[in-house]
Design the sequence.
């Protein structure tokens, strides 16, 4: 049966706060903080488990091999000789934010009737620019069934592509043809616009999308300047509901009109800036919630604890639910470790609309498998990592061994290798 599957990135053992992401205010604010990789991974696993219990199909991706010695080799160095800055870039656990792994067009939208995935190149940020090779390898394994999937290599540099974080899909139901919305930014503000229009257009062509059901919308400069480095920090869509901040898009009226023309049944739930400022939306990650359809057919939001702690945000949500708005349920999760690097519930997952039977079962979660992953995390993941530890060879060995143990546990030994 065609359904939406959420693939969450398991948080890797090298999770840390090196402040690598310019324009991501949480990452900058928490530079130098001591991270807790074990807690981070357990928080992510708890969210996966809860979504599974809610009746939502759940998959996962493995953390990538770190340190990425292959990447350093391409730069003519090694962990032993590299500068502290390059070491931090080689140690980042940023692949946990699976929303940036790829852009996904379900089979109902594409010319050849297969689900297409294009791996994101993430070229704007050095620490993320070397994720794509292993991401490609994992996607090629998980979606190896060529009758149902086509996995594409990234679009070439310099056209920046950040994957599903800048892509939304609206439809009557997941298995019906949808309208795909590509949200790009334009350079010129204080922070980089990571998603380039040229990359979005290339992906739409590669996936064989129908121009009559495709929209290219520009992200507002105000949103990028306020720290919404990805559109999924200010807007999220699911089936016929678009949940968005008033200031998310450059031409809000034009975008809404095009959306209503292409999908007349769309329901636009807009949060006005007078109720929730952009700053509150971004610190609370109100829109980085997972907007999901429960088995009952009701839409629900899976939110981070920070949304509950923010008075204007929580008041708005309570009033929406009480007033019979389209979103019927609110679920709150502690994802503090990921949030401190600017990664909320929606960043941690990649949505794939497909039949779970066509996915390599090694990437699908069950309660029992999550138990085994949890036990392994408790045994192998470091409790704490300070930024100075990124230069400690003992930590390098520990994170390599921890991930290798996970590959064995999940019968994915072929991923325990260098990707360059
Ligand atoms: O790319 N943070 C990630 C957060 C990604 C969030 N994803 C979505 N919104 N979909 C980023 O900025 C911080 C890493 C550091 O500072 O060490 C970081 O990469």
Sequence:
């Amino acid at each position: 049966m065609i359904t939406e599957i959420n693939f969450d990135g398991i948080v890797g053992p090298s999770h840390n706060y090196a402040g690598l992401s310019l324009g991501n205010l949480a990452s900058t604010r928490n530079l130098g903080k001591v991270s807790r990789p074990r807690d981070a991974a357990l928080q992510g696993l708890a969210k996966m488990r809860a979504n599974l219990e809610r009746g939502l199909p759940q998959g996962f991706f493995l953390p990538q091999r770190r340190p990425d010695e292959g990447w350093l080799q391409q730069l003519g160095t090694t962990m032993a000789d590299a500068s502290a800055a390059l070491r931090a870039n080689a140690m980042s656990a940023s692949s946990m934010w699976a929303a940036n792994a790829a852009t996904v067009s379900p089979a109902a939208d594409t010319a050849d009737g297969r689900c297409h995935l294009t791996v994101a190149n993430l070229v704007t940020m050095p620490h993320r620019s070397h994720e794509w090779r292993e991401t490609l390898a994992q996607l090629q394994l998980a979606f190896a069934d060529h009758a149902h999937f086509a996995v594409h290599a990234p679009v070439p540099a310099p056209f920046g592509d950040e994957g599903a974080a800048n892509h939304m899909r609206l439809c009557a139901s997941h298995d019906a043809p949808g309208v795909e919305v590509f949200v790009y930014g334009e350079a010129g503000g204080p922070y980089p616009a990571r998603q380039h229009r040229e990359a979005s257009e290339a992906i739409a062509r590669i996936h064989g999308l129908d121009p009559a059901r495709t929209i290219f919308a520009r992200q507002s400069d105000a949103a990028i300047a306020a720290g919404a480095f990805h559109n999924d920090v200010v807007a999220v869509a699911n089936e016929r509901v678009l949940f968005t901040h008033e200031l998310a898009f450059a031409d809000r009226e034009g975008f809404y009109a095009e959306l209503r023309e292409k999908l007349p049944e769309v329901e636009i739930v807009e949060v006005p800036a007078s109720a929730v400022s952009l700053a509150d939306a971004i610190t609370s990650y109100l829109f980085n919630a997972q907007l999901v359809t429960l088995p009952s057919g009701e839409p629900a939001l899976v939110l981070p604890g920070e949304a509950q702690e923010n008075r204007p945000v929580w008041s708005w949500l309570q009033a929406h639910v009480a007033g019979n708005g389209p979103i019927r349920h609110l679920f709150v999760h502690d994802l503090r470790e990921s949030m401190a690097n600017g990664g909320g519930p929606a960043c941690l997952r990649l949505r794939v609309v497909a039949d779970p039977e066509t996915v390599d079962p090694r990437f699908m979660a069950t309660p029992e498998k999550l138990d085994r992953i949890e036990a392994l995390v408790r045994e192998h993941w470091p409790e704490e990592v300070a930024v100075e530890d990124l230069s400690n060879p003992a930590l390098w060995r520990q994170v390599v061994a921890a991930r290798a143990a996970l590959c064995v546990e999940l019968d994915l030994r072929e991923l325990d290798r260098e990707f360059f």
Remarks:
- The pocket of N~2~-(3-carboxypropanoyl)-L-arginine is lined by residues 18-21, 24, 27, 92, 94, 97, 99-100, 125, 128, 165, 229-230, 232-233, 341-343, 347 (CB under 6 Å).
- The two ends are 37 Å apart (CA to CA).
